[in-house]
Structure to design on (287 residues):
């Protein structure tokens, strides 16, 4: 195995620089060269290099950014959590034990489906990106309701999923099923599944319900010509793009998964239990 690491350090998080320095020193003891890439707010482009591992030092948002940078390169990510929630950044002070076990081949990689999105305006591709959590199409003006037409392209042909009059649409990965999509009423999926979730935001029609769709099909969302508001495309809550009437947004599974290094896959369900669900304790009356 090569001996090069890159550390994505979100300096907005308290103690992030101290944690990065600790990790860098431990890697140096193992003759691993490390490059520290720090940012606060919207990051710049990380330095180029041939990396064998990436450390994400921050919260879930830091992992999302690191995954968008590293997944196309096939670089595994060890997510060190300094944030409050930590659904994706699940490793805490035990990072060194996790790293050592990964080097020995004792830990398997958690492969996470990512989505690719691009915008076609007339015959030109205007924007292209990938995401680990979600893609959101929403109103950018005061008038919240927007009109979107949704179709799914599969090997068997094109299927219409209907016209949505809503505050927006969320297309989430299984990893992103516990984020904005869940808050809007979408289902929770196991993060290692291959699927995408289409969740309307405050739909005008109560018949517009969430869909769980095959991620290998292509979702095509068209911005209707008649709009009372501007329309905005947001990727992982971090990258934004202004849409125009008639734009078509194409979404499908990305060519590469995000590869996350975890000590225990069941940590995900533990986080669900303690941070979302609040089961009654022994001795409490049944609801």
């Amino acid at each position: 195995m090569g001996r090069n690491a890159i550390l994505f350090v979100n300096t907005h998080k308290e103690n992030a620089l101290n944690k990065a320095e600790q990790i860098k020193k431990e890697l140096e003891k193992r003759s691993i060269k490390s490059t520290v890439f720090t940012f606060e707010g919207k990051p710049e482009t990380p330095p180029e290099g041939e990396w064998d591992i990436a450390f994400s030092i921050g919260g879930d948002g830091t992992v999302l950014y690191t995954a968008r940078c590293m997944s196309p390169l096939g670089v595994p990510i060890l997510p060190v959590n300094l944030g409050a929630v930590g659904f994706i950044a699940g490793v805490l002070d035990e990072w060194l034990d996790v790293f050592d076990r990964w080097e020995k081949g004792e830990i398997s990689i958690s492969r996470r489906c990512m989505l690719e999105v691009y915008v076609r305006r007339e015959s030109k591709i205007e924007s292209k990106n990938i995401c680990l959590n979600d893609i959101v199409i929403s109103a950018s003006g005061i008038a919240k309701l927007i009109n979107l037409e949704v179709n799914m392209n599969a090997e068997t042909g094109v299927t219409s999923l209907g016209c949505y009059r809503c505050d927006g649409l969320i297309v989430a990965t299984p990893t992103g099923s516990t984020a904005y999509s869940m808050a809007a009423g979408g289902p929770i999926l196991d993060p290692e599944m291959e699927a995408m979730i289409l969740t309307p935001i405050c739909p005008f029609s109560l018949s517009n319900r969430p869909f769980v769709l095959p991620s290998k099909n292509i979702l095509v969302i068209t911005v209707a010509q008649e709009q009372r508001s501007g329309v905005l495309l947001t990727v992982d809550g971090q990258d934004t793009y202004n849409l125009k009437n008639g734009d078509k947004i194409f979404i499908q599974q990305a060519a590469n998964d995000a590869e996350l290094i975890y000590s225990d896959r069941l940590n995900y369900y533990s986080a669900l239990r303690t941070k979302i669900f609040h089961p009654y304790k022994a001795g409490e009356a049944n609801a």
Observations:
- Confidence is low (pLDDT under 50) at residues 279-287.
- The first helix runs from residue 16 to 29.
- The helical segments are 16-29, 60-70, 95-103, 180-183, 267-275.
